[in-house]
Specification:
Elements: H1 4-13, H2 20-41, H3 72-76, E1 82-83, E2 86-87
Helix pairs in contact: 1-2
Length: 94
């Protein structure tokens, strides 16, 4: 099942600083969720049609039509950092 490494690893990827109490609680929750998934894996679904939603509902989308947009200066007006008409963001890949 899930190990302490999994909880710590995911927390590190999400840049979360977990206390020992939080890590223990999340470990317990993760183990419970994975246990439930294992239960679902044992169900015989042969012959069942795959579904996306439990209930048939139409997708309500507006037509994809071009409209007005912001200029580069307007889009960058509230950016914390920009250069050469581009957004500057902190480095997230190590």
């Amino acid at each position: 099942m899930a190990s302490e490494l999994n909880v710590r690893y995911v927390a590190r990827l999400a840049r979360l600083d977990l206390t020992e109490t939080e890590a223990d609680r999340f470990q317990s929750q993760l183990t419970s969720v994975l246990g439930y998934i294992a239960t679902l894996d044992r169900l015989d679904v042969a012959g069942l049609e795959p579904t996306v939603h439990a209930e048939e509902t139409p997708t309500l989308c507006r037509p994809d039509q071009p409209g007005s947009s912001f200029s580069a200066d307007q889009a960058l007006a509230n950016a914390p950092a920009s250069a050469n008409h581009l957004f500057l963001t902190p480095r997230v890949v190590e």
